[in-house]
Amino acid sequence: MPASRLLIVSNRLPVTAAVDDGRIQLADAGGGLATGLGGWHCHTEALWFGWPGDVSKADAAERDGLQRQLRDQRVEPIFLSADEVDRYYDGFSNRVLWPLFHYQIDRVPVDPTGWEAYRRVNEKFADVVAQSYQDGDAIWVHDYQLMLVPWLLRKRLPDARIGFFLHIPFPSSEVFRILPWRREILRGLLGADLVGFHTRAYLRHFATSLTRIDGMDVRNDRVHLEDRTVRLGVFPMSVDTAAFEALARDPEVAADAAAIREDAGGRRILLGVDRLDYTKGIPRRLLALERLFAKEPALRDQLRYIQIAVPSRGTVDSYQLFRREVEEAVGRINGASATLRSTPIHYMHQSVSRRQLVALYCAADVMIVTPLRDGMNLVAKEFVASRVDGDGVLVLSEFAGAADELSDAVVVNPYDVEAVRRAIKHALTMDERMRRERMKSLRRRVQEHDVHDWAAAFVEQLTAVEPITVTAPASRVGAIRRSVSEFWKSLRRPA
Description:
Blueprint: E1 6-12, E2 15-20, E3 23-28, H1 32-43, E4 47-51, H2 60-72, E5 75-77, H3 82-101, H4 115-132, E6 138-142, H5 149-156, E7 161-165, H6 173-176, H7 182-189, E8 194-197, H8 200-214, E9 218-219, E10 222-224, E11 229-234, H9 241-249, H10 251-263, E12 268-275, H11 282-295, E13 303-310, H12 317-337, E14 345-348, H13 354-363, E15 366-369, H14 378-386, E16 393-397, E17 410-412, H15 417-429, H16 432-448, H17 451-463, H18 474-491
Parallel strand pairs: 1-4, 1-6, 4-5, 6-7, 7-8, 8-11, 12-13, 12-15, 13-14, 15-16, 16-17
Antiparallel strand pairs: 2-3, 9-10, 10-11
Helix pairs in contact: 1-17, 3-4, 4-5, 9-14, 10-13, 11-12, 11-15, 17-18
């Protein structure tokens, strides 16, 4: 195996294992990261490290078999106990870091727990990666669950090229400093040579936190440490535009979209697709719709709002309460606004396939994406990529990272319920010429900057980092760069 490889490190693998009737079953995990780096993993000698899912019911022999099977696919599973998952993932990552980084300070526990489990699991990840490392490899660590890994790897592999990308917002320094372990998190991230963010604002928040909390000087997006320099960069993640376009042009998907429109009976279709998470702004969006129906009763028979609420963290108490809040709001609005001909809100608490999702995107007149805070929000870009007909309107929260790029959406403050109501009405009444001009601009952006651009840009910058101690021949560095260049070119070659 060549020495020049990309080692991808994430909390979850691109495949998920589960024990079913005494047998271990594998399924594709999906998601933006699996899509964005799947090409690198399949077409290069990349290795992927992560948790394979709950296999606690498997015996030692079954786990060994799973490990061999995954290693044949260049996947290195990192097994976690049920207690580790509960404390590191559910307890600290999702009960402490997730709400804090999304400005939901009141949801952070009064007495946060799980830090020691978080640290131990990050140590476990670093140990496994370090054991597989070969001179010249580039390591790319992902997201908030593994923010200590760069520093832990640096201690084990002082010469390694290490990158880190944060997929959620980095909060303002005034919010971040609430975290009792703020210095440990900053030190963990500074173990990387390159730290990437979706937007310039997130990078600026990180730089300000370094200055205000640790007194570090950040100049020209660089942090100068005693023995090396850490680069900070902006890399807006995107979607596999070509794949969504291909699905949108599939005759069966087009037929499904037509069936959705036919079932709407001539009503205009509004669409929301979100994980059932309190950061996504669903209750305020529903309140805006309730006000719209109250202010203009005629619209009750003219609109159908489809809300796909993808199940998320259903074992966590706060998420169970949030689900109840959303479903009670749906029931209240439908009870007050339904007519003999129409129930205005069509609510689905379930996952849908990508084909079904694209059919919904193609059928919708207006896509409503109004998170209270979101690192990027790929749903907005998926909708745009799917609109090969050049029509449709996107209503987008100004607090989604995507708003930095998709300025031709109808951008709105999701906390201002009345403004959201007006934005929906504006989207519904926009004339066709304006709709198509805006969509043309939005589509140009997602076509010119897709998920493969995102991955290539980060890997190119990471592999360009000069090692602290040059332990690999220059030709090896050149081989990595040539590999990046050739892979990027291959994505644009006709099949």
